[in-house]
């Protein structure tokens, strides 16, 4: 087993040496984009690429003036689906715009930027090309990396406890009707797996985030396979050929054949990482959802193992993410006067994770942004009081509406403390966050879609490498 892992590392190292030599002449930045459900990964990538190609709005992105052109090229990984940029952009910019479909599997897109270097030597050398490879993947899959060190019994105990905590008890009745020591019945295994998947969806709707295995919610091309046909069972005997023995075997197969290959083939090759979080959505669901998101963020960053590496370790395939951006999305659902408070809340939520990353040598940043601005800001007088509101087209009805969602507290602890203490609801506060549809756009030449702080995100993630 150990020899096999060493051999595998050496094989990957040879490939990485070749890639590193190539990068001397044709530099590449691999940017991972992930986030938990409904965080806006697809919109972020689509708007980022569109605004890097047409940079009229990218005032805070310092390399913008030196980019002669940006163009899409075939991606380097032939076995990974291409991120469907053109279709997603068409959905956002059509006469009747709509949000594109969310991330359901790994996809990739290569954007090549032709850049004029600075200074006298830059003028003598001429323009150079830097490739930006964007890798999109569900955050739910990233949480699975925590399963690698767990046994089936450990995972089962935790999974059953969490279902009870979130009131997703429908699976428990299905489980109690089964005899784990009886001989495996495939229809029964399928029924248990389906019931457990339904319970995970139920818990997610209630505000849970740390739900494993992540492929149960987003199976991709593995849907219906035996590696996704298992479920947690209480501890007990595991006779050969029994239901519990087979569930344990499939859990181990999931780790070795799904989780580890994902880490090796995609995640471990990233240079930079964006973690998108719908913090406003968690606040709307209540204190438990905020604490759940905070804990999930900590688990996610633990998987990154971020930090600066010397060149030799890099050649041996031990690449680590050296910059991580945490972004609270949908900032356009709030008036700009509250954006600093939203940033402070996210900063407090990720403070432990940021300290670990900084200690390891990585750089981290926290932003409140909107990759596509769907609202405009106004002030309205209500009961003699002037309120800062946002106005947009409601997703459910399509009608225009102005929203004052309530003020976020000036002290982030007023959100995090009730969450940590397990409060059921916010004391004396009500946060009314609506879902807005994308607004019809009229784009001028050399302009990408409108956004909030997307150029600042690009500055942190890419400027030093361009």
UniProtKB/TrEMBL annotation:
Pfam family, one: DUF463
Top-level division of the source organism's lineage: Bacteria
Protein name: YcjX family protein
Record lineage: Bacteria, Pseudomonadati, Pseudomonadota, Alphaproteobacteria, Rhodobacterales
């Amino acid at each position: 087993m150990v020899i096999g892992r060493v051999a595998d590392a050496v094989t990957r190292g040879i490939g990485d040496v070749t890639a590193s030599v190539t990068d001397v002449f044709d530099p590449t930045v691999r940017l991972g984009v992930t986030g938990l459900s409904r965080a806006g990964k697809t919109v972020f990538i689509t708007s980022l690429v569109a605004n890097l190609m047409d940079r009229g709005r990218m005032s805070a992105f310092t390399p913008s003036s030196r980019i002669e052109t940006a163009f899409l090229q075939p991606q380097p990984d032939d076995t990974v689906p291409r991120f469907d940029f053109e279709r997603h952009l068409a959905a956002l910019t059509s006469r009747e715009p709509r949000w594109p479909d969310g991330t359901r599997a790994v996809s990739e897109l290569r954007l090549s930027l032709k850049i004029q270097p600075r200074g006298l030597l830059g003028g003598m050398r001429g323009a150079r090309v830097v490739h930006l490879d964007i890798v999109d993947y569900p955050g739910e899959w990233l949480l699975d990396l925590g399963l690698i060190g767990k046994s089936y019994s450990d995972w089962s105990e935790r999974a059953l406890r969490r279902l009870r905590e979130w009131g997703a008890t429908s699976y428990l009745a299905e489980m109690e009707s089964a005899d784990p020591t009886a001989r495996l019945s495939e229809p029964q295994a399928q029924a248990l797996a389906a019931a457990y998947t339904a319970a995970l969806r139920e818990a997610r709707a209630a505000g849970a985030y740390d739900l494993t295995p992540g492929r149960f919610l987003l199976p991709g091309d593995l849907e219906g396979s035996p590696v996704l046909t298992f479920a947690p069972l209480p501890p007990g005997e595991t006779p050969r050929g029994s239901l519990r023995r087979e569930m344990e075997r499939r859990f181990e197969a999931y780790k070795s054949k799904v989780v580890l290959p994902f880490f090796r083939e995609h995640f471990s090759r990233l240079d930079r990482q964006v973690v998108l979080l719908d913090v406003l959505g968690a606040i709307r669901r209540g204190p438990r959802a905020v604490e759940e998101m905070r804990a999930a963020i900590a688990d996610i960053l633990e998987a990154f193992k971020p930090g600066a590496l010397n060149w030799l370790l890099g050649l041996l395939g031990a690449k680590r993410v050296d910059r991580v951006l945490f972004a609270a999305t949908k900032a356009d659902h709030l008036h700009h006067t509250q954006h600093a408070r939203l940033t402070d809340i996210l900063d407090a939520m990720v403070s432990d994770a940021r300290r670990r990353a900084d200690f390891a040598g990585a750089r981290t940043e926290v932003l409140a942004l909107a990759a596509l601005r769907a609202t405009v800001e106004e002030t309205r007088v209500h009961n003699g009081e002037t309120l800062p509101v946002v106005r947009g087209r409601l997703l459910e009805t399509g009608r225009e509406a102005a929203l004052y969602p309530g003020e976020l507290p000036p002290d982030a602890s007023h959100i995090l403390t009730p969450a940590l203490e397990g409060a059921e609801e916010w004391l004396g506060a009500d946060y009314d966050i609506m879902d807005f549809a994308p607004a019809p756009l009229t784009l001028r030449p050399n302009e990408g879609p409108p956004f909030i702080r997307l150029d600042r995100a690009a500055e942190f993630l890419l400027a030093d490498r361009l």
